[in-house]
Write a structure and sequence with these properties.
With about 425 residues, the protein is an alpha/beta fold. The chain has two domains: about 210 residues, 3-Layer(bba) Sandwich (FAD/NAD(P)-binding domain), CATH 3.50.50.60; about 210 residues, FAD/NAD(P)-binding domain. Helices cover about 25% and strands about 20% of the residues. β11, α4 and β12 form a beta-alpha-beta unit. It is globular, with a radius of gyration of 23 Å.
C-alpha cells in the first residue's frame, strides 16, 4: 500500500477532459497553476461518440467561444455540423495542450483531514490541494425498466447510440421523447423517409428566426444569456427545465411537430407503460403541443416588446397558429402490429457523482454549489447546465465559468496551509 509520502501531489486535479476540463486547464495555465487533467475515455470523446451523423449545433456559431478559442470561420450565423465541431474542438485541444492522462478512471475523490483531497484512480493514487469536477452532468443513459418487457425482436437504442436511419432495420421507428435530441432524431428519420411514431413529452419549443434575425441573436441583445441563475424567475429550478427544441439543420429552421403530423408522423402523449402487448400513452398530447406553442409565442412576444421599447426597425410581428390538431388521442399501440422494429429512447441522462465522497449533494444526487463552488473547501464543479448562466453547459458560457473558478483556485492556492484547513 502506498504511504502518504510516496503518493504524488498536485496543486489541482481536473476530472474530465471535455470542453469544460480543457477550458479549466487553459485558465489555470494562464495563471501558472500546476495541474493534471484525468479523462476516463479520450479527450472530447462525447462529441465523437454521442452524436448522430447529421448532428449540428442548435445555437449559431458565434456563440462558440472557449477560452482563447472563438469561432473564426466563415459562417458566424451558421450552425457547425458534427465534423466541423470536432475539428474546432481538436484545434482547441492543440492550442491548450493540457497536461492530460487519458484512459484513467477516477474511482474516488475523498477530502483529507488535513486539507486537500485524496484521488484514487485506475492508474494510481494522487493527492491534490483542490479538485475540479468537470465531467458534466450527463452520465447514465435513461432507459425505463418497461423496456425489458418489450418484444425481443425490436431493436432498442438510446439517443447516444443512434447514428442514422440506414443503420436501423427496415420498418417503422418509435422515438420516445421530444426534447432537443428526440425532436431532431425524429426529424432525421422523417426526412429519410422512415415511418416515425413519436411519444411527445413536455419539452418547449422556440422559433429559429423571428422578425428578421435568429432568435438567439435577439435573446443575446436582451441579456438573457448573461442572466445568472439567481436572477431567473425559477431560480435553481431552471436547471430541471427541458431545452427548447429547434434545429440548425440546413441553415436553421423551426421544428414543428404539428407539421410533421400533417406529413404522416404519428404523435402520441407521454409514454407510460407496456403491458399485454400494448404501449400505453398518457392523454396529454394536445396539452403538450399547446404548451410548446404557448412558450414559442411567449418568447416572440418578449422580442416584440424589446423591439418596441427600443424603436428597432424590424419586419412585423406574427403569432404562430396551429397547423394541425389531434382529432383523438391514441392511448394504446401494438408495436408489432404497427410494424415498429426500432425504438430510440430520447429521455436524457442522469448524473452519477457517486465517486465524489464529499457531503455536497442534495437528495437527488445533484451537487449543491454557488457558481460552481461547493461547500467543501477546494472542491468545484464546472460544465453543468445553468451552473451560473444558460450557457454554463454550452460553448458560450464555459470560458466565463472557468475563469471565475480559476480566480477562486488561485486565491485559495495563495493561502497558507493552516488557513486553508481552518477555512474548511
Amino acid at each position: 500500500m502506498s504511504t502518504p509520502e510516496s503518493i504524488p501531489h498536485l496543486p489541482v486535479i481536473i476530472v474530465g477532459g471535455g470542453q469544460a476540463g480543457l477550458s479549466m486547464s487553459a485558465c489555470l495555465q494562464q495563471r501558472g497553476i500546476n495541474h493534471l487533467v484525468l479523462e476516463k475515455h479520450s479527450a472530447l470523446h462525447v462529441w465523437r461518440t454521442r452524436r448522430w451523423d447529421n448532428f449540428c449545433l442548435v445555437t449559431p456559431n458565434w456563440q462558440c467561444a472557449l477560452p482563447g478559442h472563438p469561432y473564426d470561420g466563415p459562417e458566424p450565423h451558421g450552425f457547425m455540423k458534427k465534423d466541423e465541431i470536432n475539428a474546432w474542438l481538436d484545434a482547441f485541444r492543440r492550442k491548450v495542450n493540457p497536461p492530460l492522462r487519458e484512459g484513467v478512471t477516477v474511482h474516488r475523490v475523498t477530502p483529507r483531514p488535513d486539507g486537500g483531497f485524496h484521488v484514487s484512480t485506475s492508474d494510481g493514487e494522487w493527492t491534490a490541494d483542490q479538485v475540479v469536477v468537470a465531467s458534466g452532468g450527463y452520465h447514465l443513459p435513461i432507459v425505463p425498466r418497461m423496456a425489458e418487457r418489450l418484444p425481443a425482436g425490436i431493436v432498442q437504442l438510446h439517443s447516444e447510440q443512434y447514428r442514422n436511419a440506414g443503420a436501423l432495420p427496415p420498418g417503422a421507428v418509435l422515438v420516445v421523447g421530444s426534447g432537443q435530441s428526440g425532436a431532431q432524431i425524429a426529424e432525421d428519420l422523417h426526412l429519410a423517409g422512415r415511418t416515425v411514431h413519436l411519444a411527445v413529452g413536455d419539452a418547449p419549443r422556440c422559433a429559429r428566426f423571428y422578425r428578421g434575425r435568429d432568435v438567439v441573436d435577439w435573446l443575446a441583445d436582451m441579456g438573457y444569456y448573461d442572466m445568472p441563475v439567481t436572477a431567473h424567475p425559477l431560480r435553481e429550478g431552471v436547471r430541471d427545465n427541458t431545452n427548447h427544441y429547434v434545429t440548425g439543420r440546413d441553415g436553421g429552421r423551426d421544428i414543428d411537430l404539428r407539421r410533421f403530423a400533417l406529413e404522416g408522423m404519428q404523435l402520441y402523449g407521454l409514454m407510460q407503460d407496456y403491458r399485454d402487448g400494448q404501449l400505453r400513452f398518457a392523454p396529454g398530447l394536445r396539452d403538450a403541443l399547446d404548451n410548446a406553442d404557448r412558450i414559442y409565442n411567449g418568447i416572440n412576444a418578449a422580442i416584440d416588446k424589446h423591439i418596441a421599447d427600443r424603436g428597432i426597425a424590424a419586419p412585423p410581428p406574427s403569432v404562430y397558429e396551429p397547423v394541425w390538431q389531434p382529432d383523438a388521442e391514441c392511448a394504446e399501440l401494438d408495436p408489432v402490429a404497427a410494424g415498429i422494429t426500432s425504438i430510440i429512447w430520447c429521455i436524457g441522462f442522469s448524473p452519477d457523482f457517486r465517486w465524489v465522497d464529499a457531503p455536497v449533494f442534495n437528495g437527488r444526487g445533484d451537487p449543491v454549489h454557488v457558481r460552481g463552488v461547493a461547500q467543501q473547501a477546494g472542491l468545484y464543479f464546472l460544465g453543468l447546465p445553468w451552473l451560473h448562466t444558460w450557457g454554463s453547459g454550452r460553448f458560450s458560457g464555459i470560458a466565463r465559468d472557468a475563469g471565475f473558478l480559476a480566480e477562486r483556485i488561485a486565491a485559495r492556492q495563495s493561502q497558507p496551509q493552516d488557513e486553508r484547513v481552518l477555512s474548511c
